[in-house]
Amino acid sequence: RMVFVNGEYVPEEAARVSVFDRGFLFADGVYEVVSVLGGKLVDFAGHMARLRRSLGALDMEMPMAEAEFLATHRDLVARNALDEGMVYTQVTRGAADRDFLFPPEGTPLSVVSFTQAAALVDKPAARRGIRIITQPDIRWGRRDIKTVQLLAASMCKMAAKKAGKDDAWMVEDGFVTEGTSNNAYVVAGGSIITRDLSHSILHGITRAAVLRLAREARMTLEERAFTVEEAKAADEAFVTSASSFVTPVIEIDGLPVGSGAPGPVAARLREIYIADAR
Ligand code: PDD
């Protein structure tokens, strides 16, 4: 694979980042995952807007113009002949002597991008649906910033794996925040319910697209927090993200959701999302 490191394309074996990089020492960095379908970038502008916002919230600026990010994404897709998968981009506060204070102004930010091939459309998880467990949400209070500080989510996903399940939904004060790397939804009483935007969750780019498409299809939406009990009693549940698009949830904490099979609302949204993304 060819990867992008600070302005250069290099083979992954030759790519180097400093041991003093603040991404490595402090998780002082943010990232984006843009999916690629048929060699085309999905929702690129949305991901760039969120990257700018994440950086701004941490007192960093865009290290390159958006047009340069676009060129880098396209170059990586072409150089690696990527048809389906994603482009990962990480921006950190750069390398400096280890200090809790930010490095002096003018310290260059680090930018790393790489591709990852993956089947996104034809995925067994989407056909079968996924089984999830619930876990306490022990992450920090600014989950709207897409930082590389992912250990809490990683531990939740490991707990799911140890329990023989696919993923976890994180819970705070009895309400579901989101999945380990996706936004969470239930369908109940004919309406699609997903948590409203705040500092408690990541503002998913796929979420925004799916809500827009659901509105256009005249489906009923409610943006509000829902409880674990509500989720367990729901007709359907599903998650959205750049890597999973729309994926049905068929079991929560060992209890079947609805009939225990993927539901019609999730299936329809997945179909219209993919048609729109192509
Ligand atoms: N995760 N919530 C969390 C905590 C996430 O990490 C993600 C994305 C989402 C969905 O956001 P979007 O629709 O913009 O992908 C929600 C990416 C895919 C990842 O970490 O791999």
From TrEMBL:
Its cofactor is pyridoxal 5'-phosphate. One of its GO terms (cellular component) is cytosol. GO terms for biological process: amino acid biosynthetic process; branched-chain amino acid biosynthetic process. InterPro entries: Aminotrans_IV, Aminotrans_IV_CS, Aminotransferase-like, BCAT-like_C, BCAT-like_N, Class-IV_PLP-Dep_Aminotrnsfr. It catalyses: L-isoleucine + 2-oxoglutarate = (S)-3-methyl-2-oxopentanoate + L-glutamate; L-leucine + 2-oxoglutarate = 4-methyl-2-oxopentanoate + L-glutamate; L-valine + 2-oxoglutarate = 3-methyl-2-oxobutanoate + L-glutamate. It comes from the Bacteria. The keyword Transferase applies. This is Probable branched-chain-amino-acid aminotransferase. It comes from Amaricoccus solimangrovi.
